[in-house]
Amino acid sequence: MFSLFQWQEGDIQECSFRLKIPNGVKEPKAGQLYVGGGGPHVQEIVHGQIALTEEIKKLDGCIIDCRYFDHQWLFIKQRHDRNYPNGRRSVMGKLAALEKAVSRDLLLTNLEKSKGLN
To answer: Which residues contact 18 (CB under 8 A, 6 or more apart)?
Structure first.
């Protein structure tokens, strides 16, 4: 029997959010990033914010992919293939993976060490 796991470079963690631009604000500087609430009856909840650019302002209500870098979310692309954002737990897991990133060297070293253990 084989075990299978998924690994990504530590600094490449993208999350899908629903972007909402605040209403009633004359010149909003930031959009709100919403995640799934975690249950069938729980609505989407605010997770963070993203600085607004002219490109991002056009995407109000859309699902967008963002990358967390230098303590802020950066826009990557619009997701036309998704109807819902990532769930809260998924986003928190990806942020934890960034904090405790496993480098390629560490992964390969540990795989080499484990070869003789099976």
So the answer is: 33, 34, 35, 44, 61, 62, 63, 64, 84, 85
Where does the chain show beta strands of DSSP type E? 14-20, 30-35, 45-51, 63-69, 72-78
Partners of 77 in beta bridges: 65
Domain 14-113, second-level architecture: Beta Barrel (2.40)
Give the residue from 30, 22, 5 showing the smallest Cα distance to 97: 5
Distance between CA atoms of 4 and 64, rounded to whole angstroms?
29
DSSP state of 21: P
Tokens of 32: 């709100």
- Rounded to two decimals, what is the model's pTM? 0.77
Domain limits, the chain: 14-113
User: Could you tell me how many helices (H) and strands (E) the chain has, helices first?
Assistant: 3, 5
pLDDT in tens, 55-92: 999 999 999 999 998 889 999 999 999 999 999 999 99
Please name the residue that has the structure tokens 């990504």.
Answer: 8
